[in-house]
Structures are given as C-alpha cells and as structure tokens.
Input
Amino acid sequence: MGVSDRVTALADAEALDEFVETHDHALVEFYTEGCSICQSMEPVLGVLARSETIPVGTVNPRDDPPLIDRFDVRSVPLLVLFADGEPVDRRAEGFIGADDVQEWINASLSTERREN
Output
C-alpha cells in the first residue's frame, strides 16, 4: 500500500498486536488491495500520521484471514481505534476526511478517559 512512511504497514496479526501494544493509543485501517475507497484514505492516514497526534497503521486482513473474524471486518476501509492495546471504537463508513477522523479520535479517546 502506497501510504506515507509515517504510516506503519502491518503484515499480520502479530505485527498488529505489537503495534497497538507499543503505543498508548493507535489507529489501524483494515484495507484490501484494489479497494478504491481504501486508496482514497491513504492521504488522510498520511495527514494523521504526520500530525503525530496518533500512530497510524494499516493491515490487509486477507493476508491473515483470522483477523477478519477477530475484528468482525465486514467492509473496508475499517478504522479501529485502540487504547492500551484494546479496540475502543471503530468506523466503517467509506471515505472519511482527516478532520472528521481527528474529531472522532478525540471524542472516542475523551470518552475512553472518562470511563476509566
């Protein structure tokens, strides 16, 4: 996937687990090759990664099929927000602009903080 070098390409479940466990918070996009909406999300993910507000990773669940069931991937792109290594929120609404994704992240993490 041709995303920015600040976006971490995750090869499989092991790489995904290591990525989310390494960071307090992380955003992961589940995508598939040939998905035009996934490709349109690449610049959005690059903007988010360069802003350094949250680490961003991408994973193709077809490369590690158990990820499909584990994260209930029904459509791509699927954005999953992680806090302390655990998924806390998700969005699968097609293309989402960088500002909207950032607002969603901020709202989700502030809710997560209030609940803990």
The chain is about 40% helix and 20% strand. The chain has a mean pLDDT of 92. The chain has one domain: 7-115. Helices lie at 13-22, 36-51, 66-70, 98-115.
